[in-house]
Amino acid sequence: MKRYAANIITNLRIVFSILLLIFPAFSFWFYAMYLAGGITDMIDGAVARKTNSVTPFGSRLDSFADLVFVLSALAKILPTADVPKWALIWTAVIAAVKIAGNISGFVRNRKFLAEHTVMNKITGFMLFLLPLTFPFVDMRFSLFAVCFVATAAAVQEAYSLQKGIEI
């Protein structure tokens, strides 16, 4: 059982992600499922390392669970949130920088490299916190902060991928 604990936790994130779709955005149960999904994301890798059960399957399952979580959250949040146009444009620019960095890194190093930099982790954490700030902070301020940090992370990642530097 111990060797499957991380995958069970990851599968719970998929369940919580699907449950997100059932509850109204920003309701108590939406936030409960959102937080449960985020917590499972934070602990599944640590559990896998602690139980010495890191596997390629577990890694792929984690990526799939992350995708399901993000898509479910976006499906509930975007229709109800009035996201400013500048934030959408800025997000597209960040995505373009990340894509260009990955392509450049692949051309230079002949393989795709995944950079789990501190800046990328900070960006991911800020993105996770973003919906939790909506009731208390004007969305424009939260979005600006996340976009600013995400830009720095994308530029750092693109530079390190292109140069073949591990950060």
Features:
167 residues; mainly alpha; 6 helices
Written overview of the protein:
- The mean pLDDT is 89.
- Helix content is 76%, strand content 0%.
- With 167 residues, the chain is mostly helical.
- It is flat, with a radius of gyration of 17 Å.
- The longest helix is centred in the middle third of the chain and has 25 residues.
- Helix 2 packs antiparallel against helix 3.
Structural class: mainly alpha
CA radius of gyration? 17 Å
Number of helices: 6
The arrangement of helices and strands along the chain is: HHHHHH
Largest sheet: none
Regions with little confidence, pLDDT below 50 for 5+ residues: none
Overall 3D form? flat
Instruction: Tell me the β content.
Output: under 5%
Summarize the structure.
The chain is mainly α.
Write the layout of secondary structure elements.
Layout: H1 5-20, H2 28-50, H3 56-77, H4 85-109, H5 118-133, H6 139-163
